[in-house]
Request: fold
Amino acid sequence: MRTFMLRGFLLTLTVLLSATAGGQQSLSISDGSILGVGSDTLDVTMDSTAATEGFVLAIGIDDSLLSISDLSLAGSASSAGAELAIAEVFSDGATLGVVLDAESPFDGQTIGAGSGQLIATISLNSTTVVDSDTDSEVSFSDGTLNSPPLDNILVQGGLSIGAGQGLGLNSGTMTLLEPPPATMYTMDASAPADGFGTTGDAMVTMDNSLGPVQGFVTVVTHDPTVITLEAISLGAASTDNGAEFEISNFYENGGTLGVVMDFTTPFDGQTIPLGNGLHIATYTYSCVESNIYVEGEPAPPAATSALTLDSGALGTPPLDNVLVIGGLSLQPLLSSGTFTCEPVGVPAEDTKLWMETKFDTEEGNYAYLNQTGDLCFYYKDDDDYIQGFTFTVCYDCDLTIHEDSWEFNGSILNQVGIEYLAVQVDDDCSDGETGELIVALLMDALPPFEGQTLPQTTDLNEERLLVGKMRVTVDDTAECNEEQPIYWCNDIDGNGDVFLYNNVVIDYESIQIYERNDTFVYVVPEEIFQRGDCNSDDKVDLADSATMLANQFSGLPILCPDACDSNDDGTLNMADSVYLLNWLFKFGPIPSAPGPYEDGPDATTDDTLPVCDSDDTNC
Reply:
C-alpha cells in the first residue's frame, strides 16, 4: 500500500514538474555528533520565498559508518497539517514525500514563506566505533534513492523547484567521536584463611562510554593452589536493568559468565546504561589452605592469587572478555585484581591495651584494706582508627569493682564522644569463678552514623591514651603483703549467658590477638591506733596525758606519734595533753577518728609526723 501511494504521489509530482519556477531558496541539514555506538537527530530546514505546497527529501549516508532509524515530519510541516507524508528508509539513505493538501475538501494548506523553517528530522545511529574523530557527510542526493529515483524538490504554485531551478542543497555532517575506551575490571577481594571455607566476593565492574550494553562475557582465571571458585553471579548493574539470560561455566583455574540483557519476548530492549564502576558480575572464592596464626609464633604471610581477565584462556571455543554494544562485540581494556587469603588471628601490629590501678598511696597499685581507688584502661595504636572495644577482665575475689562507676572524665572518649557503653560486673565468687568484668564500647552506634573513631596515638604525640576508669575497693578479706590480680581473660559470661572475649574493632573487623597488659593490687598493712593512746597500751586514760607531757619535756620515747596527737593538728605539743584531759574530765570534744575506743587508720594525712612504730595494723 505504501509503495502504491508513493508511486501515485510521484506521478502527481511528475505532472507538476511540467512547469518550473526559481528563487533564492534552499534545503539544509544540520550538523551533529555521536560518541561511540550512539545516535543523534539532525534537523532538515527550509528557506523559501513563497508558500510551499509539498516537498521531496532524498538524503544519502555512508552506510559503513551510519544507519538511519527514522525520517519524519517536524516543525512547520507538521504544524501546517500535511495530509500525505510517505517515508522510505534504505541502507544508504532515506526519502520523504510530503503533500500539504492531498484530501478533500482541499483547503489549500501550505507552509508559508520564511527562512530556517524546520520541516523534518532524520535520526542516525553509528554502526562502528571509530579510533579517531571521523566526519561523515549526510547529504541531499538527487536521482539515487527509491524507484523511480527521486530528486529533492519544493512544490510552489503548482511548480517544482529543484537543484536545476536554483534550489540550494546544503548537506550536513555527522561527526563520529572517538570515545574513551571501555574498561573491565576485577576488583581486589579477600577472605580469612580459616580452614572452614569462608568466602569472599570479587566484583567485576566496567567503565563504559561507548553505548548501552546489550550483553557481555567475562573470563576470569585464578591460581587454584591458593583459592577455589565457589560461585558466579550477576552484579547489581545486570540485575537492576533486567538481564534475561545468563550462563556460567566453572574450570579448575577459573570461570566464565555470558549475559544477554534482552533475550525473551516482548524484547523490550533492556541494556546496561553508560557509566563508571558498574557492577556487572561477582566471582566468589574460598581459600584452599588454612593459614592460621599461632600465638607466640611469627605471623605467616598472606597468600594471594591474581584474578586475571584472561581472554582466550577458557571455554571451547575459547571465550574473550567482550561487551556487546549496538550489536557489535567490542573488546574493552582489561584490568585485573588480586584475591588475598588473610591469616586468621594475626595481631594488630600496634594495638596495645593496659589496665592500671591507682590508689592514694606512694605506689599507685599499693592499697590498704577497705581502700578504694581507680582501675584505669589505656590504649595505644599508631596506625589504626579504633571503632570500639570489648574488655573482658577477671579479678581476685577479694576485690570489688563498682558496676556503676565507669567514668570518662579526663579520657579521650570524653573528647571524641561515644554512643554505646555497656558494663557488667559479676562479684559473686560462690560459683567457683573469679570476679568478672565486661565492658563494651562503640564509638558510632546511633544515626546519623558519622563514623566516629578513636584517634591514632601518633596523631596526638602521646604514648598512650586513657579510655576510662572504674572504682575498685580492696575487701577486708584480702591478705596483706599479697598481690590481688586483675587480668585480661576470654570466654566469660559476667551476669549473662553469652560468653564474650576481648576484641578491638578496626575497619569493621574484630581482632582478638593484640598486646594486653595486666595489673594487680598489692595489699599493704595500714597502721591503726586509738587516738589518745600515747603509751600504746590499747586504752586511753590519764596515763596517756602524762606520757604526752613526758615526751614533750623529758624525751620519753613513744611508738605512735599519731596516737599522741589528740587534737589531730599534725603537731605534738602541750595542747595535746590539755585536749585529752579536757575530754576525759571536762566533757570536752572527743578526739577525732579513729577515736579513743577502737583501733583504726588515720582519717587525715599527717605528713609532718613520723609513722607509727607499733605492731598495730589492719592486717
User: Anything to note?
Assistant: The radius of gyration is 47 Å. Residues 54 and 99 are 4 Å apart (CA to CA). The chain has four domains: 2-177, 183-343, 352-523, 526-619.
